[in-house]
Amino acid sequence: MQDIINTAKKLIDKYNIGEPIKIMEVCGSHTMAISKYGLRQILPPNIKLISGPGCPVCVTAQNEIDAVISLAGKGMTIATFGDLIRVPGNNSSLQEERAKGKDVKVFYSPIDALEYAKANPSKEVVFIGIGFETTIPSVALTIKEAHAKKIKNYSVYCLHKTMPKALEALVVNGSDIQGFLLPGHVSAITGSAIYNFLVDKYKIGGVVSGFEAQDILMSVVMILKNMKNPKIEIQYKRVVREEGNADAQKLIEEVFEVSDATWRGLGVIEGSGLKIREKYSEYDAEKKFNIKKPNNGTEIKGCRCGDVLKGLITPKQCPLFGKACTPLNPVGPCMVSSEGSCAAYYKYGE
Amino acid sequence: MCIAVAQKVVKIDGDVAETELNGLKRRVSIAMVPDVKIGDYVMVHAGVAISIVDKETAEEDLKLWKEMEEALRESFKQN
């Protein structure tokens, strides 16, 4: 391992032009891997790895979090991925609601949540659909199955977001990002062509990367090598094909349609979200329970999660980091989620 | 949320497969990877297999990493 790192360092030195270079990763698991393997410390000082909007829980807008929490008070069973339950809302969190006796259940997969709904027909199960293209097919599967089997007590509160338009929002007004470490498993679904606009319109290249230290270092080498002639490449070829997973794409297309979405830090981005198609509207919790997102979904005071997600500041530049905001007592989602940048910086002492 | 570890398919029953990782068995949906066969490795996300790991490429990656190591060892010897 040490040998590989040393070799990678030599290659990086070979292609390093010495000018300041910013490479942004947009996948929470990359964020964790970079911190865990200490990759920032390995790179020459002019090459900076910065985190972008890659943690699904973190990019969920504050008013969406508040809407989810208030849903718990309405007698339904809230079914969610574990990361979400500790995210603070303006007044409470799902964890606090659970402590008050509300029915909040953590599931590893939406399929398990649907099974739970089937086994408990007297309960109204609402799955909180958070996540990018990687997660979306699993949720689509449950909606299709619930529809086919006429299951009436299961629905999805769809807060899903998709990657390409968010990347564009980061660079559309000019930016100092010179390369993207592109998400491995999002791309397993979407393929890599969805990123071509970065090169065509903005002359920024990117590499779809795996999650091992070697993968990420190799991807950095590839980005540096292509710096003068930017392109989109796949380093993680053992899992990602250029065309992606056609079956998953078809399923997403069947169940969802493109909509606008609100991102923490980035605001409303046109075409960056999904909503459930009319055909499946009885599984759309937003319609079924007339969920309204509060207008005053103000960011939590002092929390700079939004700026961290845009790569404008590193977690350490937030005045709350490690003081008022720690994993035990998180102020914002970037410190809560196991994929959040602040949690990664804190855990690995960066 | 991305657990980047491949799991081995040991049993297939319609749209569901049993996978194994370090002795732990799981049931995962293979609806997204209809061509999967017993013995294949799949990447699993939220209970759904999203990609079949290409063994040749995985082996190439390993080989490349080993070559990088070898090259370095050689250069240490020479110095």
UniProtKB/TrEMBL annotation, chain B:
Q: Record's SUPFAM superfamilies?
A: HupF/HypC-like (SSF159127)
GO biological process terms, alphabetically, are: protein maturation
Q: Which InterPro entries match?
A: Hydrogenase_HupF/HypC (IPR001109)
- GO molecular-function terms, A-Z: carbon dioxide binding; iron ion binding
Which is a Pfam family this sequence falls into?
HupF_HypC
**Database matches in NCBIfam families:** hypC_hupF
The entry sums up its family as follows:
Belongs to the HupF/HypC family.
Protein name (record): Hydrogenase assembly chaperone HypC/HupF
